[in-house]
Amino acid sequence: MIIKPQKGKQEQFLSSKADIVFYGGAAGGGKTYAALIEPLRHINNKNFSCIIFRRTSPQITTPGGLWDTALEMYTALGAKDIRSPNRYFRFPSGAKIVMNHLQYDKTVYDYQGAQIPLIEFEELTHFSWKQFTYMLTRNRSAIAGIKPYIRATCNPDPDSWVADFIKWYIDQDTGYAIQSRGGKIRYFVIVNDEPIWSDDSDELLEKYNIEPKSFTFIPSSIYDNKILLENDKGYLANLKAQDTVTKEQLLNGNWKIRPASGLYFKHNQISVVNNIPDKIVAICRAWDLAATEETPTNRSPDKTAGVLMARLKNGQFIILDVFTGCLNANGVRQAVRRIAMQDKINYRCNNIHIPQDPGQAGKEQAHSYVRFLAGFNVQIERINGSKINRAEPFAAQWQQGNIFLLRGDWNKMYLNELCAFPDGIHDDLVDASSDAFNYLTKVRNLSVF
Asked: Which residues lie below 8 Å from residue 117, measured CB to CB, with a gap of 6+?
């Protein structure tokens, strides 16, 4: 096995002399591999130790992720993998590389008194400013004999502290990295919990009497990872197939783009058709339930929304019917049952998706619908993740022109709400559409009808 960085950005990251280096800013740039190579320069030092942090423990052990990649690399160099009580690798010299989570701000106090020569953060935007700055105090090297340093990888998040920290390296108008500044070293001190920057370390030392830290940011993307482009040609296609916001962040490294109206759904990205263009192979009605009637003081409450969507034989999708209504609890239940009967007659649809809100009340409500809709295939699914994350897979297909709307008097209302997402007043139809789409993509036993 040959373990070495690729020429270009990975080499630049691993050869930087800065105290702190952030690497990445897009997906596919080989960030994890580079981060795992970094400690290997010290594995013959018996006093060396390193911690590589992910925000949560499952992020360490996700298949093909940090631990699996390290396992292949480090055991080839003679390291033993220890998994209890903490996950770490012990090399023949005694050098140690630990992988741990840092989930909460208070978790940092588990490291009081620690002396860690090298600290690495995988996906730094997942960590808080407090976690980062506190661990700087643990970045010491009394016995290892090396200068302590920090390395971190990241993907764009315009609302994270990281975006502000590296703003000198980012074009604030376009959101893209200024390539000519990548790798250039600057200096900072932290005063009153705020970083103060300069190109001259002596200037900071003289003014604040604090030893400055040297820093640089090295932007990279999938286009810098020639091995990945050659070995997994589908990965680039997968990035290009994402919704606009995700594609701009993960493919193009845009640090300024945020979810906004028109970035997920646009009128001109779909076709309204008079007839279903291909055979239906799977069909589902998904509901977003509300039980709020319109009142003089609340003219625009959340609505109960039901979206009937079908998957076609050619792999595309069509929205066949949409229902919305401001109803009380009993009115909602009667509408769901009445429309279920109509769907069964008109489209042979027997599949109904009901969301389960958090808590015991949500569980009881969802399961009461199963009993109420006896004779139908009712799927209950707990609501997880943000509305944007739930909508992204559907939005990606919408943007690729793979969604049709069957012509109906509901078309305008439906399009107006989706195209206003996520800044619009309501998102009931977005939620129902996302759930219907996600259900249909998971169906395995397809049959033409």
From this structure: 42, 48, 49, 50, 139, 140, 141, 144, 146, 148, 149
State the pTM of this model: 0.69
Q: What interhelical angle do 411-420 and 428-442 show, nearest 10?
A: 90
Take residue 234 and report the two structure tokens written for it: 């589908």
3-state SS, residue 280 = strand
3-class DSSP state of 353:
strand
User: Can you say whether the dihedral through the CA atoms of 341, 342, 343, 346 is positive or negative?
Assistant: positive
Low-confidence residues in the chain, pLDDT < 70:
294-300, 359-361, 449
Which of 370, 347, 345, 376 is CA-nearest to residue 283?
347
Q: 357-373: b or e for each residue (b if 16 or more CB lie within 10 Å)?
A: eeeeebeebbeebeeeb
Residue among 46, 68, 63, 66 at smallest CA distance from 55: 66
Please report where in the chains the tokens 């920290």 appear, as a residue: 165
Question: Rounded to the nearest 10 degrees, what angle do helices 387-399 and 428-442 cross at?
Answer: 70
What would the CATH number be for the domain defined by 267-442? 3.30.420.240
The CATH H-level superfamily of 9-250 is: P-loop containing nucleotide triphosphate hydrolases (3.40.50.300)
SS (H, E, C) 303-334: CEEEEEEEEECCCCEEEEEEEEECCCHHHHHH
CB atoms inside a 10 Å sphere around CB 131: 20
How, if at all, do strands 186-191 and 118-121 pair?
Answer: unpaired
Q: What confidence score (pLDDT) does residue 258 get?
A: 82
Residue with tokens 């699996």: 68
Q: Tokens standing for 48?
A: 């060396």
User: How far are the Cα atoms of 32, 184, 307, 327, 351 from residue 343, in angstroms, in the given order?
Assistant: 48, 62, 11, 20, 9
Q: Where in the chain is the domain with CATH 3.30.420.240?
A: 267-442
Query: What's the pLDDT score for residue 357?
Result: 76
pLDDT digits (tens, 9 = 90+) for 302-356: 789 999 999 999 999 999 999 998 888 888 999 999 999 999 999 999 999 998 8
Through-space distance between the first and last CA atoms of the chain, rounded to whole angstroms: 53
Do residues 163 and 31 touch, judged by C-beta distance below 8 A?
no
Cis peptide preceding 85, ω within 30 of 0: yes
Per DSSP, 378 falls in state E
Outline which parts of the chain fall under CATH 3.40.50.300. 9-250
